[in-house]
Amino acid sequence: xxxxxxKDEPQVETTDASELGQLREILFGQSNRDFQHQLDQxxxxxxxHIQQLSGRLDEQVKQLNSxxxxxxxxxxxxxxxxxxxxxxxxxxxxxxHDTLKAELxxxxxxxxxxxDKLDSRLKKEMDELESLLNQRHQALLxxxxxxxxELSASKTDRKTLANLLSTMASNLATxxx
Length: 177
Known about the structure:
With 177 residues, this protein is an all-alpha fold. It has helices at residues 2-154, 158-175.
């Protein structure tokens, strides 16, 4: 009999459970189904909105990526152009620097040569002038000695001597360059 009781017990439990389920269905069935239906609709709307928002977000991300790519390409081109212009300007400045340096070296060498030539010419002219002055000085000294000797020998008077010295002075004044 103990075995029979155990067999009856599961049937009683299933019967109780099914009665409880029927009671629940009677009390809460319609509101539970309505609630489940509303929950399913809400879930569907939320899913639809999520898909719409996801689509919009994807589109905006694509547009943003496209804009970023376009900007990046533009800036890359501009940077490359600026870099090229900078390099070109730098090359032009280097060429100008080298040209000016070469011209300056040539001008400096030319000026040095001209200075040497001028210095040499001035020394030559000064030597010639000094030689000429020495020759004239010597000639005048000789003439003065000759006149002095003639005066001593002829014993000329003072007026003649004054005229002679005056003439010599005027000759000296007109001979100077």
